[in-house]
Amino acid sequence: MTYPQIDPIALSIGPLHIHWYGLMYLFGFLFVWLLGLYRVNKTDWTRQQLEDLLFYGAVGVIIGGRLGYAIFYDLQTNLENPLNLFKIWQGGMSFHGGLLGVLTAFWWFGRKTGKSFFEISDFIAPMVPIGLMFGRIGNFINGELWGKVSDVPWAMIFPGAGPLPRHPSQLYEAALEGVLLFIILWWFSSKPRPKAAVSGLFLLGYGFFRFIIEFVRIPDAQYGYLAFDWLTMGQILCLPMIVFGILLMVASYRMGAKAK
């Protein structure tokens, strides 16, 4: 298959260029907001609290995502040209950095509202995968983060990646980290669960899906494989998520059982 030629600029108004990549983040937050409105009606949250949390979360995603990418994946280049940090339309967002930014936003929001950290994270976690899905679609439109050379029928020839067809790993991530993880978390959170269980499942689910997709995704050129000729930076960053997610779920259910 040939990669569809998609202009990364969705709309131009004079000198102002609106990129699809940025629009994907906007769409992600919009859908999370709509899902949040549905969840607000079934909880003790208010619409104002939801919108405040999404604002803090958006700031955390953008700042944490860019700083995380600069630190984890392209430190030398960004040290040489710090203005690159502001060019989010060119891609270069780290999920793990964005996660740290969002967790910081949760802490700040909790201080202002009196809600506990896991009360916040359990509320928002089931909606996050939809935002991740749109982010991966943005990667696909940008023609970045492609996969390894493959002969599967849906392999694509990406511009800038050579003449051979490759795994569309961005779409794999949109499907697994986005759609499938959303279905799992939405179902899991539809019934009462011990505090922190939903958050733990999110960490476990994302970490696991991202870890396995990294096997067909080209590692970042500046790092390559970091160990055993297959372990990537993405996998290294996912391992603590998987471990902590499991521990969090185990502790959650044990504490929930003792509370009964």
Automatic annotation (TrEMBL):
Task: Please give the biological process terms from Gene Ontology that the record holds.
Answer: lipoprotein biosynthetic process
Protein EC:
2.5.1.145
Q: Where does a 1,2-diacyl-sn-glycero-3-phospho-(1'-sn-glycerol) bind?
A: R136
Q: What are the record's GO terms for cellular component?
A: plasma membrane
Highest taxon above the source species: Bacteria
Pathway, per Swiss-Prot/TrEMBL? Protein modification; lipoprotein biosynthesis (diacylglyceryl transfer)
Task: From the Swiss-Prot or TrEMBL record, state where the protein is found.
Answer: Cell membrane
Q: Where are the transmembrane segments?
A: 20-41, 53-73, 93-110, 122-141, 171-189, 196-213, 233-253
Q: Which InterPro entries match?
A: Lgt
Name the predominant localization. Answer: membrane
Molecular function (Gene Ontology), one example: phosphatidylglycerol-prolipoprotein diacylglyceryl transferase activity
State the membrane topology: Multi-pass membrane protein
Q: Give the UniProt keywords, A-Z.
A: Cell membrane, Lipoprotein, Membrane, Transferase, Transmembrane, Transmembrane helix
Q: What does this protein do?
A: Catalyzes the transfer of the diacylglyceryl group from phosphatidylglycerol to the sulfhydryl group of the N-terminal cysteine of a prolipoprotein, the first step in the formation of mature lipoproteins.
Q: Which family does it belong to?
A: Belongs to the Lgt family.
Q: What is this protein called?
A: Phosphatidylglycerol--prolipoprotein diacylglyceryl transferase
Gene assigned in the entry: lgt
